[in-house]
């Protein structure tokens, strides 16, 4: 028998090893071939009425979907690892921070710090690093208490505006989409008078500074001035209602909405005729206000203009044009002949009528979306709110940039400023009502869902009572 040499035997063994290794590689890495074979077995082993080509295409599509899910699963795993790495890094960095002091001496910490001490340091450092950022999410030390005192039920549709008289008797006025304005006793919640002279939604109501007259603006393209005479009923003791802390975590059981049918105890006398009707707008009159002294009024309309009228003659004195889109609000200064108008064109304008011979205007472009309202304070400030989720406080003496900015989590509607306490009340699209001071620090939040009150609808406006 022939005998193989050692070299040839070794060569053959090496070839067999290479062949075995090569086959092993194909078995472990040929995923596509394995899937193809599996698909072939599935096609041949299943009894289906579908054509073979169609079944093959379906299996190919299912295979692609499976691969996409595999890729997503792998990406999720990698993202989790990155998040864990970042969390570890943040924790490690937090151990070296000491109250915001970035000196080398402050960066040294002892390894014996407990977890509670580290957590406290992180909280302190976070507050210190964000103390200059004015935001509605900023933690506050104030624990103001809010309490529901009275509900005023009688309108059949949404309420657009509120106002409180500055003279006696002190009454509350409401303007509604049900084409009416109503006067209420603040103490008892009883309707005292109902004005039904408009042919459209009543969008605004403001009271004369010294006389018993009301100014209403409407979707019927007019503004009405009407006189009222009311007698306040004997006040009843206010029911004892438990106080509710203004905490963001409050969430009690809701109660059903009251039906504003205007019948029963809230039925009240009505008037239909206005003493003065102001016309000339070509669109919805969205707001109106009295100038200081009460001899002139200003109206704001969707026709992109604001008009200044003489109350005694009903004549148009000035047409204030310049806004590029519909106006959303107008407001007058309490002691000076100044008017501020806001618009959907992202601007608000300051009109100066202190010089009778000429009026000047300044345009302010501090927002990036609709300016829903801009109002004066008793001092020299203007507060503007916008759909861009910001509220800005401006100084009339220097309007180049705001002195404070409040950033919120929802669009801001018509804002209201407390006359005596200089507190800003913000009604939001998300049914929240938050209170801030003039520097932008949040003071409280009115509960929107509790045993006493359920705010299920859009909050458009609110008003401070003069007694605050």
UniProtKB/TrEMBL annotation:
<protein>
    <recommendedName>
        <fullName>WD repeat-containing protein 37</fullName>
    </recommendedName>
</protein>
<feature type="compositionally biased region" description="Polar residues">
    <location>
        <begin position="22"/>
        <end position="31"/>
    </location>
</feature>
<keyword id="KW-0539">Nucleus</keyword>
<dbReference type="InterPro" id="IPR015943">
    <property type="entry name" value="WD40/YVTN_repeat-like_dom_sf"/>
</dbReference>
<keyword id="KW-0963">Cytoplasm</keyword>
<feature type="repeat" description="WD">
    <location>
        <begin position="320"/>
        <end position="361"/>
    </location>
</feature>
<dbReference type="InterPro" id="IPR020472">
    <property type="entry name" value="WD40_PAC1"/>
</dbReference>
<dbReference type="GO" id="GO:0005634">
    <property type="term" value="C:nucleus"/>
</dbReference>
<feature type="repeat" description="WD">
    <location>
        <begin position="278"/>
        <end position="319"/>
    </location>
</feature>
<feature type="repeat" description="WD">
    <location>
        <begin position="364"/>
        <end position="404"/>
    </location>
</feature>
<dbReference type="InterPro" id="IPR036322">
    <property type="entry name" value="WD40_repeat_dom_sf"/>
</dbReference>
<feature type="compositionally biased region" description="Acidic residues">
    <location>
        <begin position="246"/>
        <end position="264"/>
    </location>
</feature>
<feature type="repeat" description="WD">
    <location>
        <begin position="195"/>
        <end position="226"/>
    </location>
</feature>
<dbReference type="InterPro" id="IPR001680">
    <property type="entry name" value="WD40_rpt"/>
</dbReference>
<feature type="repeat" description="WD">
    <location>
        <begin position="152"/>
        <end position="194"/>
    </location>
</feature>
<feature type="region of interest" description="Disordered">
    <location>
        <begin position="1"/>
        <end position="44"/>
    </location>
</feature>
<dbReference type="GO" id="GO:0005737">
    <property type="term" value="C:cytoplasm"/>
</dbReference>
<keyword id="KW-0677">Repeat</keyword>
<keyword id="KW-0853">WD repeat</keyword>
<feature type="compositionally biased region" description="Basic and acidic residues">
    <location>
        <begin position="32"/>
        <end position="44"/>
    </location>
</feature>
<feature type="region of interest" description="Disordered">
    <location>
        <begin position="240"/>
        <end position="268"/>
    </location>
</feature>
<dbReference type="Pfam" id="PF00400">
    <property type="entry name" value="WD40"/>
</dbReference>
<feature type="compositionally biased region" description="Polar residues">
    <location>
        <begin position="1"/>
        <end position="13"/>
    </location>
</feature>
<dbReference type="InterPro" id="IPR019775">
    <property type="entry name" value="WD40_repeat_CS"/>
</dbReference>
């Amino acid at each position: 028998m022939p005998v193989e040499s050692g070299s040839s035997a070794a060569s053959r063994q090496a070839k067999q090893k290479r062949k075995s290794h090569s086959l092993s590689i194909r078995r472990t890495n040929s995923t596509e071939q394995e899937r193809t074979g599996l698909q072939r077995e599935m096609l041949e082993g299943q009894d289906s009425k579908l054509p073979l080509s169609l079944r093959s295409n379906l299996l190919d599509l299912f295979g692609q979907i499976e691969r996409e899910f595999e890729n997503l699963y792998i990406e999720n795993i990698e993202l989790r690892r990155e998040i864990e790495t970042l969390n570890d890094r943040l924790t490690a960095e937090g151990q070296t921070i000491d109250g915001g002091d970035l000196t080398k001496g402050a960066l040294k910490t002892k390894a014996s710090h407990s977890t509670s001490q580290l957590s406290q340091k992180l909280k302190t450092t976070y507050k210190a690093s964000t103390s200059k950022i004015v935001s509605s999410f900023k933690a506050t030390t104030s624990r103001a208490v809010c309490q529901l005192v009275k509900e005023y039920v009688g309108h059949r549709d949404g309420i657009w505006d509120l106002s409180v008289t500055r003279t006696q008797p002190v009454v509350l006025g409401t303007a509604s989409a049900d084409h009416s304005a109503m006067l209420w006793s603040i103490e008892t919640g009883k309707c005292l008078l109902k004005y039904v002279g408009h042919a459209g939604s009543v969008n605004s109501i403001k009271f004369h500074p010294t006389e018993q007259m009301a100014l209403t603006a409407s979707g019927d393209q007019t503004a009405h001035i009407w006189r009222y005479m009311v007698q306040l009923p004997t006040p009843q003791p206010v029911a004892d209602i438990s106080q509710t802390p203004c905490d963001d975590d409050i969430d009690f059981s809701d109660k059903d909405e009251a039906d504003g049918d205007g019948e029963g105890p809230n039925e009240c006398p009505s008037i239909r005729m206005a003493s003065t009707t102001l016309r000339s707008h070509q669109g919805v009159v969205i707001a109106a206000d009295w100038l200081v002294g009460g001899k002139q009024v200003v109206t704001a309309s969707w026709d992109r203009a604001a008009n200044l009228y003489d109350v005694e003659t009903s004549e148009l004195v000035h047409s204030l044009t310049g806004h590029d889109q519909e106006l959303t609000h107008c407001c007058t200064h309490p002691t000076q002949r100044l008017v501020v108008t806001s618009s959907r064109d992202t601007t608000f304008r300051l009109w100066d009528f202190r010089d009778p011979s000429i009026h000047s205007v300044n345009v302010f472009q501090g927002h990036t979306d609709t300016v829903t309202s801009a109002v004066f304070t008793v001092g020299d400030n203007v507060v503007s709110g916008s759909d861009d989720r910001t509220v800005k406080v401006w100084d009339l003496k220097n309007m180049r940039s705001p002195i404070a900015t409040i950033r919120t989590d929802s669009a801001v509607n018509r804002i209201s400023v407390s006359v005596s306490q200089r507190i800003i009340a913000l009604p939001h699209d998300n049914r929240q009502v938050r209170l801030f001071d003039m520097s932008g620090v949040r003071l409280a939040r009115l509960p929107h869902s509790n045993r006493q009150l359920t705010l299920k609808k859009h909050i458009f406006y609110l008003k401070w009572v003069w007694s605050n």
